[in-house]
Design goal:
alpha+beta, Arc Repressor Mutant, subunit A, 4-stranded antiparallel β-sheet, two-stranded antiparallel sheet, 8 helices, rod-shaped, disordered C terminus, chromosome partition, WH-like_DNA-bd_sf, cytoplasm, cell cycle, Segregation and condensation protein B
């Protein structure tokens, strides 16, 4: 076996998109090329290195040494896409906070699924602010600092107008005329009390829950 044959086999395996059989390699080389011998020599030369020559299902390929596989692990966060119902609910909370679940339903015109609010709470985009000073003492919701960071806002008064909001993907429906952009200092309401320590409505995550069959 010649050194040149070994180099040619090495080059083919390095550039190949997938494992190659002996026949695949032989087709590319001169008729007298000793492919098996070249593979054996390469396997011995790469043994113990960071990259090894391995035979998998009768085909040959270069691969990372098994003991170094941990170096190739990549962790990344997969962004969770909000459902249409969650986007609409988040928009209403952002522009009308502090807002109760009943008020969210009144603006949207459909009954709110608990699962939708649960997702926004779990993602940290929404928080429970307090209880409204009205019959039933309903819980009010507002946005968080994570909401501002996610949408690149310095403060709530920097919330965009309706057209900009839709372009950013935060809003995908036509809301009633009374859905107004707040003015600086116009957010918040005095008619709520803070939640007591440890107090929180029943919480569960229901990713299948939707507000109505149309969503």
């Amino acid at each position: 076996m010649s050194v040149e044959t070994e180099r040619q086999v090495e080059a083919l395996l390095f550039a190949a998109a997938g494992p190659l059989s002996v026949e695949d390699i032989a087709k590319r080389l001169p008729a007298n090329a000793e492919v098996p011998a070249a593979l054996a020599a390469l396997q011995q030369r790469y043994e113990g290195g960071g990259v090894e020559l391995a035979c998998v299902a009768g085909r040959w390929r270069f691969q990372t040494a098994e003991d170094l596989a941990f170096l190739m692990t990549q962790e990344r966060e997969e962004p969770r896409r909000l459902s249409k119902a969650a986007q609409e609910t988040l928009a209403i909370i952002a522009y009308h906070q502090p807002v109760t679940r009943a008020e969210i339903e009144a603006v949207r015109g459909v009954q709110a699924s608990k699962g939708t609010l649960d997702v926004l709470l779990e993602l940290g985009l929404v928080r429970m602010r307090g209880r409204r000073r009205s019959p039933g003492r309903p819980v009010t919701y507002g946005t968080t600092d994570a909401f501002l960071e996610h949408y690149g806002l310095a403060q709530l008064s920097d919330l965009p107008g309706m057209a900009e909001m839709k372009a950013a993907g935060l809003l995908s429906l036509d809301l009633p005329p009374d859905f107004n952009v707040p003015t600086p200092g116009g957010l918040g309401a005095p008619d709520e009390d803070p939640l007591e320590d440890g107090e929180a409505p029943e919480f569960h995550v229901d990713f299948l829950g939707e507000d109505d069959p149309a969503h």
